[in-house]
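Priority: medium. Attachment 1 of 2:
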């Protein structure tokens, strides 16, 4: 067990106590990680970030109050999940699908939190692919969960036009065929291929993108992730580059298939998750923003409607901010 610490930014509120890091081994031998902030007795609650993000995104020190602090003020026992796509893990450099995150990482993480805390069940919140994989995990039979919150994405990834175009063009498959195994948001000015890519990106018409090499790469790999007017300069310059990392082509092949189908399916395209509608009979909240430029709000609405149609309206909430 190790302690996770971070330097405190000048605009930070009360400092966050160090988190305790717990390595977790999944059913296929992959090492993922949980970071525990023992701030209260509610929960425990497990938080999972978007794809290619480190879970410490929930604990950035460049804002007056981060999400871990907010939950701590409300009495929650907080666990951050770095699933295998986290740039803080060696596993992020391997090839895997969303199925692996859903059926291997989530069960291992929930079991580990229950073992560490003695809790019969836990709560979980997933953002973006963290939410998609959580929704798939539940449909796949995840045990020990008593409620779930989905931010931006759940079981129906209906993308904005730009991301639909990428998926429809089968770019991931094309990249794989020419030998590209991953895309990286890091920029090394001394590395000739990085300089070449940077010259190309600077020539492209990126709008509303932070004018930096890393910002351009984030846009190219992930799409229009941020509303930059809502992010202070310190967060964009210091925190954001460190929480993004490499992305693997096998993952993008899988999620592109789901985007083309507008629903969660396994790698082979089978309806392995949504068909098990009775497994979603638990309290669930679906949250998104009306200006989401990655996945349109009607996708989350469709997931909300799906579980209510199968299990009745009780226990489900839906909010568009």
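Attachment 2 of 2:
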């Amino acid at each position: 067990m190790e302690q996770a610490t971070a330097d405190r930014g000048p605009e930070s509120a009360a400092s966050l106590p160090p988190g305790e890091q717990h390595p977790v081994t999944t059913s296929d031998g992959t090492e993922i990680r949980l970071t525990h902030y023992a701030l209260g007795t509610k929960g425990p609650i497990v938080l999972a970030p978007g794809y290619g993000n480190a879970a410490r995104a929930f604990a950035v020190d460049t804002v007056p109050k981060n999400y871990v602090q907010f939950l701590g003020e409300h009495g929650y026992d907080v666990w951050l999940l770095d699933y295998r796509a986290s740039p803080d893990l060696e596993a992020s450099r391997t090839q895997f699908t969303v199925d692996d995150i859903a059926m291997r990482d989530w069960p291992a993480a929930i079991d580990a939190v229950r073992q560490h805390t003695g809790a019969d069940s836990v709560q979980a919140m997933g953002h973006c692919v963290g939410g998609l994989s959580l929704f798939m995990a539940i449909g796949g039979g995840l045990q020990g969960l008593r409620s779930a919150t989905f931010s931006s994405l759940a079981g129906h990834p209906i993308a904005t036009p730009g991301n639909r175009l990428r998926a429809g063009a089968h770019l991931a498959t094309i990249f794989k065929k020419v030998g590209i195994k991953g895309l990286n948001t890091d920029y090394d000015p001394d590395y000739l291929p990085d300089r070449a890519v940077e010259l190309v990106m600077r020539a492209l018409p990126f709008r509303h993108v932070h004018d930096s090499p890393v910002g351009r790469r984030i846009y190219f790999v992930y799409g229009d992730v941020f509303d930059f007017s809502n992010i202070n300069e310190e967060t964009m310059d210091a925190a954001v580059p460190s929480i993004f990392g490499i992305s693997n082509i096998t993952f993008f092949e899988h999620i592109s298939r789901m985007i083309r189908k507008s629903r969660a399916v396994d790698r082979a395209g089978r309806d392995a998750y949504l068909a098990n509608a009775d497994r979603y009979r638990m309290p669930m909240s679906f949250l998104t923003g009306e200006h989401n430029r990655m996945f349109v709000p009607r996708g989350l609405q469709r997931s909300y409607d799906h579980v209510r149609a199968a299990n009745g309206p009780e226990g489900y909430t839906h909010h568009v901010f």
